[in-house]
Input
Amino acid sequence: MIVNNTTGVGKSNIGQTIILQSTITCPLCQHEKQETMPTDACMYFYACEHCHQRLKPLQGDCCIFCSYGTVKCPPIQEVKPCCPIL
Ligand SMILES: [Zn+2]
Output
């Protein structure tokens, strides 16, 4: 999976390029959907538009983009944990 670097990218405050476009692949029906990730929040639940299953992150992942997306969520790309791991 190749992400087009000319769109859907942002800059972190330390100058890193952050990719904001991620393609979610539903683990149940394999439906793919490109989504834009929020930079300031984790998306913990995601409803597949095809099978309408509500997806949750896999164990150890902070959001559904980390578990099912082609790109890790922006806080992970910035190498800082977005949510405290308990
Ligand atoms: Zn699905």
